[in-house]
Write a structure and sequence with these properties.
The complex is a heterodimer of chains A (183) and B (283). By secondary structure, chain A is an all-alpha fold. Chain A contains ten helices and no strands. Chain A is globular and about 55 Å long. The longest helix of chain B is centred in the middle third of the chain and has 25 residues. Classes of the chains: A mainly alpha (183), B mainly alpha (283).
Chain lengths: 183, 283
């Protein structure tokens, strides 16, 4: 790999990648694919879907379909693409799942699992941590999608498999519960 | 990795990977990650490198597929289906080099006409246009011929074996090529001395020549059809130009009527011969 690509900043790499530079693509992948993969894995139970979303993320950059405008963190920009590619990949899966549902019921459970992937194991000290832990998994997932992942209610709904209105009302309820727990 | 970041201890990162920390800590990891390069690197240490390599190989294979250029992306944005965009982008006479050649030829003709007009004065105005009249309809003709040439199109065999209607292929490619070459020809006509109306008048005859060639190609060999159409057009222009001295009359009302009639006849021939085009043409 060229040393030029290795010493470039992320923003420079992004520009080179959208201009068709393969070495820049490799360097960008080396730098970011690892953490994106781990974070994507927490959002979806299917390894195949996560792999596809990871590839699609870098293909989006490669085809110049997403432009980094030099504002904000490159990491946040990349995650914004990755989570949306994951939603797209999950929707394609869901279409297949719906077809499978006509044949048997077992497919439906997988969807529920991936939506409520969060496991409650550790207990975090501090009042916000406690309050978060006490939220029901549905409310927390809605907050996570809209606050942490920066998705719109419609996008979050597609990720979680519920209508956009449900996401909105869950976020509203979650905020009320958090406020009560913290006051 | 440069330095250990103070925000996230190693065991928190390990817990995040193993999904063994509470939601609050997981949230703080995720909120911190986009901003911190060293924590991203620390997290990436936990990723499955074989899986990353496998995904990179798949990514490279997929990235090798043709990239859409500016116009291709614009067409996609306008709602043209992806497969049609690829079909158009792989057309030899829609490549940038070909279109640059078209622009070059037209520019030379226009400059030559301008120079001749400047030297000869208004008396020559009719004759001055002869080179342009000969060349301008040839430009789309050559482009249409190249769009279906086994020599110039590397994807010719793929196109002829593809399970798509050949008539559809013919229509869509010919239309795109005609639009892409007639526009520069019309613009060039605007730059000619004294005859701005030629920009519009040359359209119908040029289209008629191209469609006639395609109709001919369903009866005789394609190369022969192109040569006959080209020679026929040159002979016609010269025949009209010589005795009367007014070659522009080829594009006059009479000429337009004849061009329209020829066009209708050629379309009818293509319609009648569509089975031949569908099954035996691109052999």
């Amino acid at each position: 790999m060229s040393t030029r690509a290795e010493h470039s900043t992320d923003a420079e790499l992004l520009r080179l990648v959208s201009g068709g530079d393969e070495q820049a693509l490799a360097a960008l992948y080396d730098r970011h694919a690892g953490w994106l993969l781990i974070r994507l894995r927490r959002r979806c139970a299917s390894a195949d879907t996560v792999d596809l979303a990871l590839q699609d993320t870098f293909l989006t950059l490669w085809r110049g379909a997403a432009k980094y405008r030099g504002q904000g963190e490159v990491g946040a920009f990349l995650w914004g693409i990755a989570i949306r590619r994951l939603i797209d990949a999950m929707r394609r899966d869901n279409r297949q799942l719906r077809a499978m549902q006509l044949l048997g019921r077992e497919a439906a459970d997988q969807v529920m699992q991936s939506a409520e992937d969060v496991v409650l194991l550790g207990i975090e000290h501090g009042r916000l941590g406690e309050a978060l832990t006490q939220l029901s998994p549905e409310l927390r997932a809605a907050m996570q999608a809209t606050v942490l992942d920066g998705l719109s209610c419609a996008e979050a709904g597609r990720l979680l498999g519920v209508p956009a209105g449900t996401v909105k009302s869950r976020c509203h309820r979650a905020r009320i519960e958090l406020r009560e727990a913290l006051s | 990795m440069t330095q250990e970041c103070a925000v996230l201890p190693v065991e928190v990162i390990a817990g995040y990977v193993a999904n063994s920390i509470g939601p609050a800590q997981a949230w703080s990891v995720e909120a911190h990650l986009p901003a911190c390069r060293s924590c991203r690197a620390a997290l990436a240490m936990h990723s499955d490198s074989a899986r990353l390599d496998r995904n990179f190989a798949a990514l490279m294979a997929r990235s090798g597929l043709p990239r859409s250029g500016l116009i291709g992306r614009l067409l996609r944005r306008c709602g043209v289906p992806g497969h049609v965009v690829v079909l158009l982008e792989s057309t030899p006479s829609l490549r940038r080099s070909w279109l640059a050649g078209v622009a070059g030829v037209l520019a030379i003709v226009v400059v030559a006409s301008q120079l001749t007009a400047a030297a000869g004065g208004p008396r020559l105005s009719g004759q001055v246009l002869v080179p342009f009249m000969v060349i301008a309809p040839m430009v789309p003709l050559a482009a249409v011929a190249a769009a279906f040439s086994p020599v110039l199109d590397p994807a010719y065999r793929i196109a002829s074996a593809a399970p798509v209607s050949k008539v559809w292929l013919l229509c869509i490619r010919a239309t795109a090529v005609l639009v892409a070459t007639l526009l520069p020809a019309a613009v060039a006509a605007l730059a000619l001395p004294s005859s701005q109306w030629l920009a519009v008048a040359l359209l119908l005859p040029a289209i008629a020549i191209c469609v006639t060639t395609l109709a001919l190609a369903s009866v005789i060999r394609a190369e022969l059809a192109v040569v006959i159409a080209a020679a026929g057009w040159v002979a016609l222009v010269l025949a009209v130009a010589e005795p009367a001295g007014e070659p522009v009359s080829v594009f006059g009302p009479g000429g337009q009527l004849i061009a329209a009639a020829v066009l209708v006849a050629a379309v009818a021939v293509i319609g009648l011969r569509r089975n031949k085009i569908e099954y035996g043409w691109m052999e």
